[in-house]
Fold Tryptophan--tRNA ligase.
Amino acid sequence: MSRLPRALSGAQPTADSYHLGNYIGAFMNWVALQDDFEAFYFIPDMHAITVDYDPAQLAERTYVAAAQMIAAGVDPERSALFVQSHVPEHAQLAWILNGVTGFGEASRMTQFKDKSSKAGTEFASVGLFTYPILMAADILVYQADKVPVGEDQRQHVELTRNLAQRFNHRFGETFTVPEAYIVKETAKIYDLQEPTNKMSGSNPVHTGVVDLTDTPKQAAKKIKSAVTDSETEIRYDVKAKPGVSNLLTIYSVLTGRTIDDLVKAYEGKQYGHLKVDLAEIVGELVGTFGARTRELLDDRGELDRILAAGAARAREVAAPTLDLVYERSGFAKPLGGRP
Ligand code: ATP
Ligand code: MG
């Protein structure tokens, strides 16, 4: 049976809004892949509960996440857009994959080390520890071929490949072994105030993070206040000039102009010129983006319908995969088939 190759990705609803790093590093790629892939994009609400969170906010954040993904260009007519907890096969497969994951290999995941070091491993949840296994299930349950992610997720996709190969080897050919799809240039957008750190939604300070719900004025201010360096020359050099290089990257992806072209255009000009122009571009982006998001959020009924249709499409693929996995695993089949 020939089918289009499949792409799968998600972005956690752990903040009140996604940020410019998510937009550039994730959503722009998701949108581009829709043409040539059968795409599955989802809101990982079950991942979001692995860290401290407020249940009173989660549903609202899930709606905002869906609206922002659509505003970014995810087309629910072409791609399945859904909420993770609406498709129970993710959690069911994750449990099975727990059984083929080594404690040692799970312990080597650097994201857990990073995220748990903040509060100390004593207080980190076991859910945060097994998060990469749920992520492997998210990917494998759709037999995904490509997983568009930022650099921070490379190790988790590598674990997913190992688990798929191990399962196939032990229990017979079952899973497609997926590949990470990381666009080198935009894999990491940096914090505007600390340009050697990744722009991150979970950073408690948002002066260096452009939220997609920022007003054009707020966004412009953040760009104009971006930390640069004590030189004056505008050139791309991530090591020596991380701040300026980050601004050039953002400018380049948002306009489609190459970095070389930008460096030539700004020859002899000052950092201020670059910032003012980029502030306008980013301001315009969040302006249109915000208006579209609010429009979508005003019609919850329509969002509910989109997410229900997305979950139904997702289950058409996820349920048969899980069935095969249960069979391969040796589970006895209940009378009348599996629920
Ligand atoms: P956290 O910092 O809490 O992990 P996050 O901002 O990284 O949150 P995620 O839900 O982990 O958000 O990531 C969603 C997607 O966005 C992933 O594909 C991730 O690789 C990508 N992404 C996140 N931050 C950036 C960034 N600064 N630059 C490029 N891509 C990013
Ligand atoms: Mg992350």
Q: What stands out?
A: Residues 35 and 57 are 34 Å apart (CA to CA).
